[in-house]
Design a protein that fits this description.
Layout lengths: L1 H45 L2 E8 L3 E8 L4 H29 L8 H34 L14 H34 L1
Antiparallel strand pairs: 1-2
Helix pairs in contact: 1-2, 1-4, 2-3, 3-4
Length: 191
């Protein structure tokens, strides 16, 4: 009877360790996806530029030049993307180091709270940057009604596409960080 209890206890401990490792692998994958999403968002935004000539008033050609650095909202998005990529890379390196040493990715409750707070802060910063950039992009697509300010995205389609896809990856990154924060909440509730 005692041997059966010991065997059952060992099997339970092995199952918990296996579940913990799978969760840690998922966290490392999410962290790597954060880095990738930040890099894609960043690279699309910093390559967003285009020159074109548009016709106004029936025949006058007017040169139009668009570049991401002309908008403070886009600069903010780039800055936040760089910060998130650096933060995620640091967390990934620390996590991989702990994972390969077969220790827990989260060493204590304080460590879990710190990572949770960092993930939340960066997710909110991404949401703020993405929202600001979305407003500028929406204005570029629609122009300003009641004034002669045109739809800039008709002649500058390449620029607008780069910016729009960059913003989409920004929001994907926000979702990934929120998912990581939920993982840490679950860890905190169990420990």
């Amino acid at each position: 009877m005692a041997n059966q209890q010991k065997t059952a206890a060992l099997e339970g401990a092995a199952e918990r360790a296996s579940r913990r490792r799978r969760t840690e692998v998922m966290q490392l994958i999410l962290r790597a996806l954060c880095i990738g999403s930040s890099i894609v968002s960043l690279s699309l935004m910093i390559t967003a530029k285009q020159n074109k000539s548009v016709r106004i008033f029936g025949g006058i050609h007017y040169p139009v030049h668009a570049k991401w650095s002309f908008s403070q909202s886009f600069i903010f998005l780039v800055g936040v993307s760089v910060a998130v990529a650096a933060y995620s890379l640091l967390q990934l390196l620390i996590g991989l180091s702990r994972f390969f040493r077969s220790s827990s990715l989260i060493s204590s409750r304080n460590h879990a709270w710190l990572i949770f707070a960092g993930d939340q802060a960066f997710a909110y910063a991404l949401m703020s940057a993405g929202s600001a950039a979305s407003g500028v992009t929406s204005l570029n697509h629609t122009g300003i009604k009641l004034t002669p300010l045109p739809n800039f995205c008709k002649p500058l389609q390449k620029f607008c596409d780069h910016v729009a896809i960059s913003i989409v990856f920004n929001f994907i990154n926000c979702f990934l960080l929120a998912t990581l924060a939920i993982h840490h909440v679950i860890w905190l509730s169990q420990h």
